[in-house]
Design brief:
It comes from Prunus dulcis (Almond). It holds the Pfam family MaoC_dehydratas. By secondary structure, the protein is α+β, with helices and mostly antiparallel strands. It has a single domain, classed as Hotdog Thioesterase (Thiol Ester Dehydrase, Chain A).
């Protein structure tokens, strides 16, 4: 009998779509989404988060602090990660996220969010997935980190156990 360490092998999970052709998530799979954040996005996020830092609303304050212009909230940019995961796996449960803010994001810039599955482990008819997360502008990393999510209703391909 072949025993495998599920932390170091590809354990595919069925994506949360109903489809005749099953798509599986494997270690190394990357999902992306691009977005341009607007002044309205920043205002709406500020209302919900109660973060009214002038760096987000006043160009002069932002320039006085050493930035080119008004900033998009870092946490708003980082919200791309759960959006990417939940849009591919409806019902996913976001477990954790670490973040490193590398560069500022300005209103009107196109940001590409990316999540890459780095570890997949089956657990009680679900998959616990570790993702490398990163956001880019013009190819430069603005935010990176790691996320963990529980993906619902996995389908696991049976490993070939014959010798």
């Amino acid at each position: 009998m072949l025993t495998r360490n599920l932390l170091s092998v590809n354990v595919p999970c069925l994506r949360g779509f109903s489809s005749a052709a099953a798509s599986f998530l494997r270690t190394g799979d990357t999902l992306k989404l691009s977005r341009i954040f607007t002044s309205e996005d920043v205002l709406e996020y500020s209302k919900v988060s109660h973060d009214s830092n002038p760096l987000h609303f006043d160009s002069e304050s932002a320039r006085n602090a050493g930035f080119e212009d008004r900033l998009v909230h870092g946490m708003l940019v980082a919200a791309l990660f759960p959006k990417i995961i939940s849009s591919h796996f409806p019902g996913a449960i976001y477990v954790s996220q670490s973040l490193h803010f590398r560069l500022p994001v300005y209103i009107g810039e196109e940001i590409v969010g990316e999540v890459e599955a780095t570890n997949i482990r089956e657990q009680k008819n679900r998959c616990l997935v570790k993702f490398r997360t990163a956001c880019f502008k013009n190819g430069a990393i603005v935010i990176d980190g790691e996320a963990m999510a529980i993906l619902p209703a996995p389908a696991v391909e049976q490993a070939n156990t014959s010798a």
